[in-house]
Amino acid sequence: MAKVTPGEFINQVRAEARKVVWPTRQETTTTAIFVAVMMLLLSVFFLGIDTVFGFVVQWLLKLA
């Protein structure tokens, strides 16, 4: 790998930074809402699973 001068390195970094495409406000808002909804759904799902397993474990412990 060839060594580059600090100036050339900075120019390369700037060139790569110009290629970055930032999301629009609409895309960011839509993604944030989607993440919040999925977080809510998954938390309710795992609460249900945890409750069911809790009852099963309590039932098994009563048998012992």
Architecture overview:
This protein is mostly helical and 64 residues long. It has one domain (6-63). It contains two helices and no strands. The chain has helices at residues 6-18, 25-63. It starts with 5 loop residues before the first helix and ends with a helix. The relative contact order is 0.06. It is found in: Cell membrane; Membrane. This is Protein translocase subunit SecE.
Give me a quick take on this structure.
The protein is mainly α and 64 residues long. It has two helices and no strands.
Which features would summarize this protein structure in a list?
single chain; 64 residues; mainly alpha; 2 helices
Mean pLDDT: 95
Largest sheet: none
Distance between the termini: 67 Å
| Net shape | elongated
H/E topology pattern: HH
Query: Spans of 5+ residues with little confidence (pLDDT < 50)?
Result: none
Number of helices: 2
Number of strands: 0
Structural class: mainly alpha
Number of structural units classed as domains: 1
Portion in beta strands? under 5%
Query: What is the helical fraction, as a range of percent?
Result: over 70%
Radius of gyration: 26 Å
